[in-house]
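User: Please predict the structure of the protein below. I'd like the answer in structure-token form so I can feed it into my own downstream comparison script.

Assistant: Understood. Taking the following sequence of 573 residues as input:
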Amino acid sequence: MSRLLLTFCLLLQVASAARLTVKVEPRWGDRPLVMDGLSLATADQEEMSVSRLAMLLSHAELQKADGSWIGARDWVALLDAGKGKLSFELPEIPAERFTALRFDLGLDEATDRSDVTQRPAGHPLHPDVCGLHWGWRGGYVFLAIEGRYSRAAGEAGGYSYHLAGQACRGTIEVPVELDLRGDLVLTLAFDARSVFGASHRIDIAAADSTHSGDAGGLAQRLADNAVRGFSVLKLEPDLSKPAEMMKANSRVPALLAGKVPAHFPEAAWPADNPLTEAGVELGRVLFHDVRLSVNGTQSCASCHAEEHAFSDPRRFSLGAEGQPGTRNAMPLANLAWKPAFFWDGRSPTLRDQVLRPIEDPLEMHERLDRVVNKIGDLAPRFGEAFGTAEITSDRMARALEQYLLTLIAGTSKMDRTVTGGERLDELEQRGFELFFTESDPGRGIKGADCFHCHGGAHFTNHQFLNNGLDGDAPLADEGLARVTGKPADRAKFIVPSLRNVARTAPYMHDGRFATLEEVIDHYDHGIQSSATLDPNLAKHLSHGGLGLSDEDKRALVAFLKALSDEPQVPASR
């Protein structure tokens, strides 16, 4: 995690200050926690796994020798085992001795209900950073723990526990002698097993989900267990040099003034490639230039058509030489908020992504150096955009990046409803309610359960998940596992945004579903069990699926259509 801005309110003037780095090691009893491995055990479950473990912490304080506490009430931190965010820093601490550290699991009510759109890019409470914001419902999840379980009788299922609200907020206090006359590294253990039995025994099969609603106090029992899971592993001097803080350029570029909705969270716009009229126009020209392909027959726009919300209506695009691709072309919108690119996330930045199709044998199949030579007539445009007429592949990437960042989707009927300019009709409203309602037959709650993966202003959690398209049989496309080499990432693909979804058929990474109705049928009763299936989907298997009625499905389709912007007249070429 990047260094957090935390200034302790000092009771005494001190000559110097220190920094405490706190690392958290997830464990399962006496051993490190291995994510996604179906080999853990509690008293009630013979086998289980943990595929997600994330939490929000706040109100860090240190206890002085006289028993008083100093700290920062506005401090927050994110821990996420899956994302490798397992540390936080407390800088500018008085160079004194302390006897304990304490912090809250969860947020105070004011912070919990604060305006998410005001959080700068990179902030722990930014929804695209933490993935713990409830989305349109408002408020945050304080602790999310999800996974799979299997009983001796062979029954399998998934569990999903999301704890939120002041009743689930608790305080962790760790006694530890801290001599902060020098920087220290404190390593804490968090025993995930404690969530299921520290003080209250949790029978997963009897209650495999909670989202802090009325569940007989289940969420509160889980929260009470969780705060008991922290303990000291080790304390050592910090011999590293503090890293320079990176300040993200989170202001909306002037060229996009009025195009980015106020209810969008902030984005980290590239500070080293500011959007200019000349740069954006050069990017648009390159996007439509067939000379980027080996034989002058294909441009970026060939597979990302503006009239289809910059997607391809074909299941698989054809390359410049007629060669079929293997995945459906992803639509292009709101790319400044995306953490990774391609279905398998192999490109970490948009600037990296835009050049890859040019050299891909299944796409444009050209060399970048040849493209640079072929577009020499664009030298004056490069001069206008970058100050000199030199044409390079890096400048091509920067121009394409600038253009693509201007493709904003945020004028749908849903957006107009949020801003008060329009209202969803009765069928759309019913779809909205189903979309954002948990499916929990055991408690009489019936919903479509879409919001776990498609909540928030962008209708995606930006995570890589297995959505049950195929079982454990050999796959032609291993998804994220092809990039990471990890078996736990098998069949995981990035969750796409549902914005413009009515205009971007076909659906899924391989375009197997032609209609929204087919997609809904898949999630209703077509989920295939596998070792890496997302727990939020696996939990429905034991209940025979969602059990949506035909009217429910029509309502969902109506709501999904309300997430699409009106088609625009294609820009002039």
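That's the full token string. The chain has three domains: 17-237, 254-405, 413-561.
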